[in-house]
Design brief:
The chain has about 140 residues and is an alpha+beta fold. The chain has one domain (about 5-135): Arc Repressor Mutant, subunit A, CATH 1.10.10.10. The protein contains 4 helices and 6 strands. The chain has helices at about 10-20, 30-35, 45-55, 125-135, and strands spanning about 25, 60-65, 70-75, 80-85, 90, 120. A 3-stranded antiparallel beta sheet has the order 1-3-2. The protein has a 3-stranded mixed beta sheet with strand order 5-4-6, with no helix packed on it. A hairpin with a 5-residue loop joins strand 4 and strand 5 (about 90). Helix 1 crosses helix 3 and helix 2 (about 30-35) crosses helix 3. It is flat, with a radius of gyration of 18 Å.
């Protein structure tokens, strides 16, 4: 899918540029902070509204952390994560085991796939060791 640049507002183009400049993902709060430093400021509600519109256009993907925070990345970054539910540490997976999976043929007329997320939640090595020490 994906919208053409002419179909994007200047604010949406600005958000895509900032997301493209980051190495991995950014929260709406982080994007807002970056945009308050530059010449074109954008309110927090405007940041979130435009991120949602970019997501609906198939240009931005998001993932939800156990804390409730949402992280955003450009659609071309097909990254998936292992997240510790204790300390919040996140490890990026090297590849996506779902990369070639699509919507079942009999449902493609009813649903257009924009992106997918794959999250694994558990305990990182450090938190497992810390819990073992507490159990002794």
């Amino acid at each position: 899918m994906g919208a053409k640049p002419s179909q994007l507002s200047p604010r949406q183009i600005q958000l895509l540029k900032e997301l493209g400049n980051c190495k991995d993902e950014m929260s709406g709060q982080e994007l807002h902070r970056v945009l308050t430093i530059g010449p074109s400021t954008m309110g927090l509600a405007t940041v979130y509204r435009n991120l949602r519109q970019l997501q609906q256009k198939g240009l931005v993907r998001c993932r939800h952390l156990p804390t409730g925070e949402v992280l955003y990345a450009p659609m071309d970054r097909d990254h998936h994560h292992l997240t510790c539910v204790d300390c919040g540490k996140t490890l990026r997976m090297k590849n996506c085991p779902l990369h070639n999976i699509d919507v079942p043929i009999d449902q493609r007329d009813e649903f257009q796939l924009l992106f997918h997320t794959l999250e694994f939640f558990g305990l990182c090595k450090s938190c497992m060791e810390h819990q073992q020490v507490k159990d002794i």
